[in-house]
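Comment thread on ticket #2218

A.B. wrote:
> Attaching the input chain for the structure job we discussed in standup.
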Amino acid sequence: MKPAVWIGVAVVVLLIGGASVGGYSLYQHHMSDDVKRLLLAANDEHASMVEIRQYTAQARPLVRTRRDREVLGELEDAMALYASVSEDEQKDREEFSDTMRNLGNIDNEDDECYGRFSKLMHLGKRYTEMDVKEPKELLDHIHEALEEGKECSDRQTRESEARTEREKSNRNLAFKDLNSVRKAIGLHPLPKA
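C.D. wrote:
> Ran it. Output below, let me know if you need it in another format.
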């Protein structure tokens, strides 16, 4: 064969190879119809968390393209973040309930932070009722228990504040991921609440 023929064959092979690579790359950037249909159902405003999990579980084995995997991953990340926010909010409600129940009740010996202080105060009251001065060791223990209670209360406050910040951050990340999914499947973004 002449060199011109070899060059022509090489050009044709390169064009076919380039078209194949380009076609495959283009294919990887689109969403499969089955996955898109399930993600649309998961984004229905009336879908419960259970239904959303079912839709994502059904979509997982249908993933064919890189875009399918990315968008499904974003939805799963958003749902995990919303679940984390929900758990943190539940913990906040429980702590608030405990605080309200214990508010003004320093005599609660079961209180996590001030229980030991309360027990020692009751013991100190017995000395007062008997008209006897409390021993210095008891007063030292009462003061120590009060300081420990304050440290515990401060730690709980810091944990609550950190949880609140984490809730805010997770909610924003989930919102961003969810709107990215909605854009990928052709829905309008959710309005910022």
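A.B. wrote:
> Thanks. Noting for the ticket: The helical segments are 3-28, 33-42, 49-59, 66-102, 115-129, 136-184.
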